[in-house]
Automatic annotation (TrEMBL):
Keywords: Zinc. This is GlcNAc-PI de-N-acetylase. It comes from Arachnia propionica. GO terms for biological process: glycoside metabolic process. The keyword Nucleus does not apply. Gene3D superfamilies: LmbE-like (3.40.50.10320). SUPFAM superfamilies: LmbE-like. PANTHER family: 1D-MYO-INOSITOL 2-ACETAMIDO-2-DEOXY-ALPHA-D-GLUCOPYRANOSIDE DEACETYLASE, N-ACETYLGLUCOSAMINYL-PHOSPHATIDYLINOSITOL DE-N-ACETYLASE-RELATED.
Length: 247
């Protein structure tokens, strides 16, 4: 597709933009598209990698630190614009906090029992959709990209943003595509292993949350080790299909 598109990635927390879709972002930027990022929360409830940053856990300083980490990752990946959900002057001024999660079993998360009243999952979905739609209008998005309907592994904030993105895209008449990490029917697959160094560079900016091991893997603050994601797919809705097929 020769036309330059305005592509809006929507993620729940700082570091998701690098973990889930960092290589795809770098690929689309290099192809000449205008790629923007909206982050719903500031990751206030994230665990912290053991070590020199451990004292940040559970403190207001963690939020400020993660905002700085995110700003550096955003610059590294080449996003044209970034905002937090609800922030003025585009948004309503509502603030959405990290809802937290609990592990139901290995690989599957569920809601935390102590989500705060102003958390992303506690606020009315209509509020989330209104703030999201306002930002999508502001960046004049041709395509909205976020999580699949299960949030990848069940994180309630990821699931919430999937639902909000689908609703906002339908409201505005633009296409929605979900990031998936396995090929399948209807999936536009991108083999982007060559961009692994670029993704690892972005991930290293999120040192409070994860450690890049240098062997193609990363270790999360909770101790789980997994491969660095590079090759990914997009599963588009009907409106987005011709746009995604042309990427």
């Amino acid at each position: 597709m020769s036309k330059s598109l305005r592509i809006a990635f929507v993620h729940a927390h700082p570091d998701d933009e690098s973990l889930w879709s960092g290589a795809l972002t770098a690929h689309l930027v290099a192809a000449g598209h205008e790629v923007s990022l909206l982050t719903a929360t500031r990751g206030e409830r994230g665990d912290v990698v053991p070590g020199e940053l451990s004292s940040l856990a559970g403190t207001p300083e963690l939020e400020r630190h993660r905002i700085g980490e995110l700003a550096r990752a955003v610059a590294s990946l080449g996003f044209a614009r970034h905002a937090f959900l609800g922030d003025p002057p585009v948004g309503s001024g509502r603030r959405y906090r990290d809802s937290g999660m609990t592990w139901l079993r290995p690989g599957l998360a569920g809601p935390a029992a102590d989500a705060e009243p102003d958390s992303l999952c506690s606020r009315p979905l209509d509020d989330v959709v209104a703030d999201l739609a306002a930002w999508l209008r502001h960046v004049d998005a041709d395509l909205v990209v976020s999580y699949d309907d299960d949030g990848g592994y069940g994180h309630p904030d990821h699931v919430r943003m999937h639902r909000a993105c689908v609703a906002a895209a339908r409201l505005l008449g633009v296409g929605f595509a979900a990031v998936v990490h396995a090929p399948g029917e209807g999936v536009r697959w991108f083999d982007l292993d060559n961009l692994a160094p670029r993704v690892e560079e972005a991930l290293r900016h999120h040192a409070s949350q994860l450690t890049v091991n240098g062997d193609g893997t990363l270790t999360h603050s909770g101790g789980q080790t997994e491969p660095v994601v590079t090759s990914v797919g997009l599963r588009p809705d009907a409106v987005a299909r011709p746009v995604v097929e042309g990427l």
